[in-house]
Amino acid sequence: MPRSALTGSRIRERRTALGLRQSDLAVQVEISPSYLNLIEHNRRRIAGKLLTRIARALAVDVSVLTQGAETEQLDQMGAAAAAHPDVAVELDRMDELVGRYPGWSALIATQARRIAALEARVMSLADRLAHDPFLSASLHDLLSRVAAIQSTASILVETEDLDDNWRKRFERNLHDDSARLATGAAALVGYLDAEGEPELGVVTPQEELEAFLNATGFHVAGLEGSVPDLIDRLVRDAPALQSDAGRVLARDYLRRYRAEALAMPLETFAAAAQAQGYDPARLAVRFGQSVGAVFRRLAALPDAGIGLVVCDGSGALTLRKTTPLLPVPRFGSACALWPLYRALAQPMAPLRVVLEHAARPDERFVCFAMAQPAYPQGFAGPAVHESAMLVMPPERVAPQDGIAPLGRIGTSCRVCPLDGCPARREPSVLGDGGAGAAAPALPGALTARAG
Amino acid sequence: MGHHVLLIEDEPNIMEAIRFVLSRDGWRVSCHSDGATALAEIARVRPDVVVLDVMLPNRSGFDVLRDLRADPTHGGLPVLMLTAKGQAKDRSRAEGLGASDFMMKPFSNAEVRDKLRALVGWVD
User: Fold this and answer.
1) A143:B13 CB<8 A
2) Which of A109, A215, A401, B36 could cross-link with A76 by S-S, CB 3.0 to 4.6 Å?
3) Cα three-residue angle A166-A169-A171, rounded to 5 degrees
């Protein structure tokens, strides 16, 4: 969509502001007043020397006349039209509509934006209800409590010759189960209440841990250096850690953090990271630590702006350190082109990929990713894979040094504008990105697109 | 001595209530709470019927049932599946794996007793 289409409206605005008559401007730029009238009503396209003459006559830069707030509005109207391909919209006259009826155009754009937001929210809620392990576990726990209470209460009521010892035992069970039922019900109500908030609250133990870590950028100053062990106090005093399960997760994470902080002291590690170009593999050798530990340590560097995403073998995201470079979806699946997932298919193979986000082309960053297997049940048990991905700002790692070709990724299909993406699972609410939606991801697509 | 039932359930208070009810009904009751060792326990105690919860630690009741049915030694052992989810897909999955009957939490004590009696052909 040419953005110069509304230039006429801006010319008229500028001319009026200067108190210049249409006929006078026409004379100055050597065109007829009727032709200028057509230009000002966006019925004639304008560019090149004539535009330069008009800009000079109006004492503004050409860009002032060709760029304006309508650009975003046109984008939104285009997205609205693309979302309803069955409606015959006069796309070639969209610029005219915006120019002549700015109020109605703003309404269309606002409604399109609202619809997209509501669709995204419905998607996240539907996904949560269908797949949320917290909801499933909570319902299971509540029904188990109810079953225990019902069975126990029936025994107390129906068994006339119940021995005193048994009666006391069942009464105690009844008391315990009712207390657990109350706690579980309160947690579930809190969870469902959060669903109604514009911003979803922290509802799972994993989210509690992420909220706790994100509050300090994953850097826990209290566990750096040779200070006493503060883990219990940190956990106890953290407002984000509301549940017992969340506190257990946090303690486990912080114990590992403490061990890694001792093995890779902050100042030494920060200096080494800079010297080694933030290369996790080199740092792993330098400190005798695993690549996964170095990933976490890099993410814990204060004010470094380094993002971290971790997933399990199923691709479910298990840890998210957010960064503006690459927004991470809170619900549902992330972009299949992320190196995080590619690493899962190549365990132990380090990946370094230069990327752009589909929504912000030309804003490059570097991702390091690696998947590693663990054998918690020994050789007889299955390998459990975990993949991790660091998102490095360009000022930390020069993207030009990338050994892989540039690739484009998104956040998740539903909000991704990437045209013809070979890994697209579903159409985008942004319209254009859904053009190639019908085609499923093809083997090798990742290599072709993301390098 | 009455019929022998093995309860495989990880909620201790549910287990205790069912155990009490069935014992008073004349059943010999054994209890187990871990999915990973459930099959070995069945082989060890050789019950007449099994009450098997779906949500068990370490191994799901569905997995236990599938392996049980794959073992010709226990091919005809009646199994009453318990689940708290109560979803149609769980019921059809249990039936597909060879569950003899299915019961959703919460349930009444009489329902457990009647279903188990029916499974072993117990007539007063």
Assistant:
1) no
2) A109
3) 110
pLDDT per position as a tens digit, A399-429: 555 455 568 888 777 667 777 888 888 776 5
Give the containing element (helix H, strand E) for B7: strand B4-8
**Minimum Cα–Cα distance from B105: chain A residue:** A147
Quote the minimal CA–CA distance from B50 to chain A in Å.
Answer: 18
Instruction: Tokens 């609205």: give the residue.
Output: A80
Predicted TM-score (pTM) of the model is 0.45
Q: Find out whether A416 and A408 touch, Cβ atoms under 8 Å.
A: no
Amino acid, res. A396: R
Non-local CB neighbours of B20 within 8 Å, separated by 6+ positions: A155, A166, A170
**Burial class of residue A96 in the structure, from the number of CB atoms within 10 Å of its CB (0-12 exposed, 13-18 middle, 19+ buried):** middle
Which of A140, A141, A151 lies at the smallest CB-CB distance from B17? Answer: A151
**Are residues A139 and B24, on separate chains, in Cβ contact within 8 Å?**
no
Of A141, A143, A176, which has the smallest distance from its Cβ to B106's Cβ? A143
Q: pLDDT per residue over A30-78, tens digit each?
A: 999 999 998 888 778 777 888 889 989 988 888 777 766 566 677 777 7
Please state whether beta strands A351-357 and B4-8 pair in parallel, antiparallel, or not at all (unpaired).
unpaired
More confident site: A198 or B69? B69
Distance CA A186, CA A232 (A): 25
E strands present in A24-91: none
8 Å CB contact between A309 and A389: yes
Distance, CA of B116 to CA of B51 (rounded, Å): 8
Residue in chain B nearest A177 by alpha carbon: B13
Structure tokens at A20: 């210049």
Q: Sign of dihedral through CA atoms A406, A410, A416, A422? A: positive
Residue of chain B whose Cα is closest to the Cα of A173: B13
pLDDT of A199 over the 60 cut: no
Mean pLDDT of the A305-313 span = 92
CB-based burial label for A183 (10 Å; 0-12, 13-18, 19+): middle
Residues from chain A that touch B107, judged by Cβ atoms under 8 A, are 147, 150-151
Strands A407-409 and B49-53: unpaired
Question: Which of A191-205, A281-295, B19-33 has the least mean pLDDT?
Answer: A191-205
Residue to mutate among A144, A156, A159, A170, with most B CBs inside 10 A, is A144
> Residue A309: beta bridge partners?
A320, A389
Rg (CA), chain B: 13
Residue pair A208/A246 in contact (Cβ under 8 Å)? The answer is yes
Per-chain mean pLDDT for chain A: 80
Q: Which of A127-131, A286-290, B107-111 has the lowest mean pLDDT?
A: A127-131
A408 bridge partner residues: A356
Interface check B63 vs A, CB under 8 A? no
**Which residues, numbered 114 to 173 in chain A, qualify as contacts with chain B under a Cβ-Cβ cut-off of 8 Å?**
136, 139-141, 143-144, 146-152, 154-155, 158-159, 166, 169-170, 173
CB contact under 8 A, B109 and A147: no
From residue B35, how far is each of A439, B10, B78, B82 by CA, in Å? 42, 9, 18, 13
